[in-house]
């Protein structure tokens, strides 16, 4: 007797465009061992027929690396914001419920506009600026003890999960969120990046900066990379206080 083919039920919150009302659609997807949520979405894309047997539009989502590095495939899975590439179907409660993250504006279905997070990184100059293309020679070395914790901060993949979990990041607030705060600590620790340390700290003292943090500590609990976000926020609190004194007394040192 042939074995009955197993399926996985996906209940997906969909939205046709940014202005449209959201709705829920259910899909039955053929089960495969070791499949992840992205595999299920790919099956729906191949055969966009819902559980009622009605032809529908393929579900839209984002992905890139498929190995929890880019952060693009983040969504809410069974009520928890996480990456759909690393969410294994065998380990999820059934049926599997997928929703877009709600901190960011929904573009379509599970695709959201994460511009808010990237604009925050621009505001705090989250990069090491080096002008010109000529050879500057080897850069200064970082002390090993500093390099170790800086590496942990560099794991950030701008997935947006920490902003999704933060109660202070919403459409009524201009708070830049925990990811950008931690990146200031990272780039201020870099020997070359430290040249612009004051500018980054000044940005944190502007509207929407570190004063917007309510210390809920949700961010550190949900970060998929285990980044010590609250440690960074505490460090930046100290640094901005020192910077405020330097600014008041007109000292750059």
From TrEMBL:
Alphabetical UniProt keywords: 2Fe-2S, 3Fe-4S, 4Fe-4S, Iron, Iron-sulfur, Metal-binding, Oxidoreductase, Tricarboxylic acid cycle
User: Which positions fall inside the 4Fe-4S ferredoxin-type domain?
Assistant: 147-175
Cofactor(s) it depends on: [2Fe-2S] cluster; [3Fe-4S] cluster; [4Fe-4S] cluster
Q: Which InterPro entries match?
A: 2Fe-2S_ferredoxin-like_sf, 4Fe4S_Fe-S-bd, 4Fe4S_Fe_S_CS, Beta-grasp_dom_sf, Helical_ferredxn, SDH/FRD_Iron-Sulfur, Succ_DH/fum_Rdtase_Fe-S, Succ_DH/fum_Rdtase_N
Pfam families xref list: Fer2_3, Fer4_8
For the keyword Endoplasmic reticulum, the answer is no
* Database matches in PROSITE patterns: 4FE4S_FER_1, 4FE4S_FER_2
Q: Would the keyword Nucleotide-binding be found if you checked this record's keyword annotation?
A: no
Give the Enzyme Commission number: 1.3.5.1
Family, per entry:
Belongs to the succinate dehydrogenase/fumarate reductase iron-sulfur protein family.
This chain belongs to the protein called succinate dehydrogenase
What does the organism's lineage look like at the top?
A: Bacteria, Bacillati, Bacillota, Bacilli, Bacillales
Q: Which gene encodes it?
A: sdhB
């Amino acid at each position: 007797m042939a074995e009955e083919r197993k399926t996985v039920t996906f209940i997906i919150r969909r939205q046709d465009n940014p202005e449209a009302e959201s709705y829920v659609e259910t899909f039955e997807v053929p089960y495969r061992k070791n499949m992840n949520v992205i595999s299920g979405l790919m099956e729906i894309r191949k055969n966009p027929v819902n559980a009622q047997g009605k032809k529908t539009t393929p579900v839209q989502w984002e992905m890139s690396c498929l190995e929890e590095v880019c952060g693009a495939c983040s969504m809410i899975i069974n009520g928890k914001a996480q990456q759909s590439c690393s969410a294994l179907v065998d380990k999820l409660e059934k049926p599997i419920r997928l929703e877009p993250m709600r901190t960011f504006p929904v573009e379509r279905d599970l695709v959201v506009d994460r511009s808010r997070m990237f604009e925050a990184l621009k505001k705090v100059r989250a990069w090491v600026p080096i002008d010109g293309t000529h050879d500057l020679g080897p850069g200064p070395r970082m002390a090993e003890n500093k390099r170790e914790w800086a590496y942990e901060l560099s794991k950030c993949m701008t997935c947006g999960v920490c902003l999704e979990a933060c109660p202070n990041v919403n459409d009524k607030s201009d708070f830049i969120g925990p990811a950008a705060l931690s990146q200031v600590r990272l780039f201020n620790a870099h020997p070359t990046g430290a040249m612009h340390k004051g500018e980054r700290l000044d940005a944190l003292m502007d509207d929407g900066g570190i004063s917007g943090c309510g210390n809920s500590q949700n961010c550190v609990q949900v970060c998929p990379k285990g980044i010590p976000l609250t440690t960074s926020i505490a460090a930046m609190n100290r640094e901005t206080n020192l910077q405020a004194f330097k600014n008041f007394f007109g000292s750059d040192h």
